[in-house]
Amino acid sequence: MEFSTIWAPRILSVLRIVDGLIMLQYGTAKLFGWPAIEIFENLKWLSLFGIAGMFELVGGTLLILGLFTRPVAFILSGEMAAAYFIGHFHTASFRLSVKATSRSAFALRFCILLSPAVGRGASMR
């Protein structure tokens, strides 16, 4: 068998799990205050950030587990696109942010956008 045939699904699984963990981290930071992020202190659950946190908490968990990966990734990619246009687009140079945190957020959005097209990777056994 070819190298990419064997390893591509496994690498996609690692990418999916890491993306899910990052999404879960943002969801818990927004909703439960852990890890503590100053901007998310005293956040109301029914605010824009709170609803985004709900998407990230549930969606991140589903991505980690590999359940409903394509529809969840599609929904999260829309949420990430909205977050980019609401939070970063107006301050971006050439419409790509120059801050390190913005670049990593942009990379995360791209990975989430890629997931509906490629699936969940290796099957969970």
Detailed description of the structure:
With 125 residues, the chain is mostly helical. The chain has one domain. 69% of the residues lie in helices and 0% in strands. It contains 4 helices and no strands. The protein has helices at 3-32, 48-65, 69-87, 100-118.
Brief description of this entry?
This protein is mostly helical.
Q: How do the strands and helices of this protein lay out in sequence?
A:
Layout: H1 3-32, H2 48-65, H3 69-87, H4 100-118
Helix pairs in contact: 1-2, 1-4, 2-3, 3-4
> How can the largest sheet be summarized?
none
**What is the overall shape?**
elongated
Summed up, the helix count is: 4
Radius of gyration: 15 Å
- Strand proportion, as a percent range, falls in under 5%
The total domain count is 1
* Beta strands, count: 0
Question: Averaged pLDDT, please?
Answer: 82
| Helix-strand topology string | HHHH
Q: What is the SS-derived class?
A: mainly alpha
Q: Kindly, what is the distance between the CA atoms of the first and last residues, rounded to a whole number of angstroms?
A: 21 Å
Task: Estimate the helix proportion, in percent.
Answer: 55-70%
The low-confidence runs, each spanning 5 or more residues with pLDDT under 50, are none
